[in-house]
Amino acid sequence: MKKIVLGLTVAALAFSLSACKDLKMAQNAIKQENSGESSGEGESGSGNNPLDALKKNLGGETSDVDELEEYNNYVDFSNFLVNDFVDHLHTYFTAVADDPTFQATGQGIYPRYGFSKYDEEDVQKCLDQANKGTHFTDLDENVKVLAPIVLDAMKVYNEAANYGELEGYKDDQYAKAAEIHSRFYPLIESYVNPANEYTANVHSIALERQEKEMQQVKDAGYIIRYDMLKIMRLKNDILDAISEQSATVSEANITELDLTKIRPAYDELAALLLEFNPLVDDEEAAEKEGFSHAAAAVHLSAFARSAGDFKKQVQKLIERVESGEGFSEFELNTPSIADGNYEKISEDASDMTSNYNSAVG
Known about the structure:
This protein has 15 helices and no strands. Helix 5 packs across helix 6 and helix 6 runs antiparallel to helix 7.
């Protein structure tokens, strides 16, 4: 079960972009700002400032806007599951055996830091959205099943974190930990299948939307945004190819990894990044596409760096496979020092997604 749960980390997704017309509106707004012009207090006060529309991924008071917000909320929930939620599970199942009966492994540290109230509020917000109903009826039904399990698991995990922070296990020889485990483990068992179904459904929708958005920004002449979407698509292609084999290929037998899909995607990514990185420092090109303000420029640069880090980790993975050397026993036991392993690739992929969402959000 632990491997299945942690395997969800490959599914971190990007937010959907606003319509291309918002980019054109943003360009005009930037020009107005640079020339000292104003669209008028009434228009700005009404919340229709085009630059703000781009920042918020809004295009007007339409059902398309509602759909975009609904979609991005569900993507946000998916990303929470495959990042923060899985990180907490990793902490727990490193210190506690993956078994219905509690057993301390003697590895790692028993949980000490729980989920924040903001995490719980975000999950509850997603559940409220599903109960209200959205344009994504299948995802609504997924969330109605999954979110209550997640909320219950988060509450029990926070009990464990409070117990761990106080080092209560030294007082009762893990008696309370065993009681917590008796409630936590069944929740995680019930979480796995709904989580896999939900993230798979979101992923499928994301791929469709991403292809459409790539064509839109390409037709509009937005090279930076098109390249960013293409980079994200190639990242997903690589992660999907790894995920398809994760049931039979781990770091221990990494030389058996089939590179048929991974190598072409990597080669395309490597070539694209050589073209993309200079654009990031091109202020005129960045301004044209709405990246002129300081925060957006910072996030854009961060995206480029994280994409480069991801590329280098995949490069190292390919080297290990093609050389037939794989990972040493020491590297398998200390993954933090081993470049090219699944954990580092996943971390850099998550950083890419986070920086992408910050840049376009």
